Amino acid sequence: MQRQKPKGPGKPGSRFKPGSGTFKGAGGGRKSGDNSQKRPRQEINKSRLAATEAEIQDLKTKYAEIDATAIKKFAQFPLSKKTQKALAESKFVHPTQVQRDSIGPALQGKDVLGAAITGSGKTLAFLIPVLEHLFMNKWSRTDGVGAIIISPTRELAYQIFETLKKVGKHHDFSAGLIIGGKNLKFERTRMDQCNILICTPGRLLQHMDENPLFNTSTMEMLVLDEADRCLDMGFQKTLNSIIENFPPVRQTLLFSATQTNTVQDLARLNLKDPVYVGYGGATPREEPSASTKKTPNTAVLAVPELLQQSYVVLNLEDKITMLWSFIKNHLKQKIIVFVASCKQAKYLYEIFCKLRPGSPLLALYGTLHQDRRIAIYEDFLRKSHVVMFSTDVASRGLDFPAVNWVVQLDCPEDVSQYIHRAGRSARNKTRGECLLVLTPSEEEYMISALKEQLNIDIRCVQIDPKKLFSPRVKIEAFLAQFPELRATAQRAFLSYIKSVFLMRNKRLFNVFSLDLDAFAQSLGLAVTPRVPFLEKFLWRQKQLQQQKEQGDNAKSINPLLSKLTKQQSFGGGDEDEENSDDEDFIKVKRKDHDVEGEPVKLDEEDDTENEAEAPLVVPKREKLVTKASLAKKALKKNLQVNSKLKFDDEGETMADDRSQMKALSARQRTVNQDDDDGGINLVLSKALLTEEDQYDKQRFRELVKKRHKLQREKLRKKAEEAKGSDDEEEQQDDDNADDAGSESDHSVDLSWLPDPDKVYKNKPNASDRNESKSESSDASDDEKADDSDGDDDDVSDDEPAYKKSKLTNKMTLMDTEAIAASLLGS
Ligand SMILES: Nc1ncnc2c1ncn2[C@@H]1O[C@H](COP(=O)(O)OP(=O)(O)OP(=O)(O)O)[C@@H](O)[C@H]1O
């Protein structure tokens, strides 16, 4: 059954080929397109047109006779000459099982749900029908988008695009790769000229929302690769919005190695009497109830025959040692190591680069820039022996040739994820091996699930301890040397804990069974980082417990429980989002971690009859701005403290005697700045400050003594001079009187000052007494000066004491004497 193509302008004139590169829409085939556009339609070779028309009619008649069981070669399929030629050139001669079974119905215009083991050639199974559909309908560039292929990951979309370039090279269609991380404007202007779009869901929806030139009303074919992933909760909203924009009448093809679609999923896609390929009689069923939801409705659960599977049981803290030893023993092999989070992949890559195992290393994960991701993907394709640390971004669909080993270092979320990861090896009838690493708490559940659902007994491997080499000491040394590496290790630690915490299957993943200290040490961390989300969870649990014990608000326990588990499964809800800096860097994009089965057991007796009434309000704690937190921020920003420079009269810089007085240990510490561990060592800082304080006090005492001595000498000199000559004294008195009179006009009246002669005649030993007094009261002076004279260093030692007294508004006897002496002297 062929659908009628909408009449578009310019048909069948301009044709475009998919070209190379990340976006090849109109650009890829512009050359030939421009030529053909220049030619008037009438000039197109009529015989060629007639031949194409005849070919189409011929093929149409053969569609009804397709017998999948009789087909041994692609040539036996009623395919266009252009497709046949490209298939032959790419050495695709014999169709695989899934291709044999699905191409026929797809050519006939039926909806297809295809499921087949990894590496069995599903990509061609949908690309050939797409090309043929457009060919049969004489599609041209001006007809707009004819087919949209959706893939859950960018790398997979890129790979499909590359395969399309191979099998569609003799056709004149234009194709575009629409994935995130690329130039949106560039895509925007060319999308309407593409006949086949290969996209990721998010980017496609963005164009639908923002691009007025993008029109999907002409679209006739929809393909979902890795359909179960596209339809699961992570993409649910996006996909629903996308589907709303599609014309309701269309052909839909769904393919995956693990089809877990329910009838409800298929209803969302408007499937009409779909043909099931590879389901072995099973068909999608009704949405399972909450109780049965744990077992996915998986139609195909099989791994390639030539894949050897084994598993090993290790404590979490031994994983790095095992991995290091494994890599050292498989230096000439192509290995993918799957971990749970981007930060772990990043850390393992960085630390192993430093450790230099002797094999090239790569890391592929979602937070890398798109161009880098593609470069790493291609690098891994090319290299014959290499180790790639990866998240599940590479677990689905990617067709890496000759991968010898897949190591699942962190336990997969479920059996279907295990299959997809393992399927990166032993592809297309080649050999490969898969090693699953489990912790003791994961072993029982995972192995029995694999046995139940895959019907296989995975071999358990015992590791010979003699073959294990621990890189722990080296790792610790590197972490001590490179603070940024230590920060990466801390993030890796937290992200693994968070990933376990968020897993929906609490029987498989129990965060409380982990030995956090040992795990932190295995990553090379001397101090176990705080885990704020766990602390918060435990704090709430405690609150709950207290409430329960008090017996009041018994009815609010169940709603709280569900709230807690919801927050646990969705990354903490609103409150978590606005939470501390510590948690900011952990963002969980997938939202399909609905808590199923048993959540973390908050309380054995919680499954009681208690009904939801008043939800418990967890008080919001305001975050205090402490000095420590400010200092932490400053440290993070790597701010430099201002330094003080003193200049002499010539403008030369003078040595700052303050810094010279620094405590010995402080100076040593400044010299050895490389030892700085980037944090605040309170004990050490306190000791340094105490030491510095002693220096400061001692220096201050010396300054006070010096100043007093100077004052005494001055006073003594003046007194001797005063005694020496009466005439001079009289003269001086006159002068002083004149001066006083002349100054009194514009200065202060000093007549109230005591007569220094009287004072000194009566107390000849006053200065001596002062001396002994000042010396004995050094300590108390210190204390006084501490309060009033804090900036003593900046006051010149020659400065008259009365100036200081004025400043402090305190007039002591000493001050009075000093003023008088200075007046006498002037
Ligand atoms: N008919 C064929 N003859 C020879 N090689 C083929 C054929 N079909 C596909 N291949 C090759 O098999 C490999 C796997 O194909 P493909 O990536 O389509 O598998 P898949 O089923 O989509 O795998 P996954 O489930 O992992 O996505 C590719 O290298 C492809 O070129």
From TrEMBL:
DEAD-box RNA helicase Q domain location: 72-100
GO annotations of cellular component type: nucleus
Any Pfam family matching the protein: CTE_SPB4
Record domain Helicase ATP-binding: where: 103-277
Family label: Belongs to the DEAD box helicase family. DDX10/DBP4 subfamily.
Function: RNA helicase.
Name of the protein in question: ATP-dependent RNA helicase
Species for this entry: Drosophila melanogaster
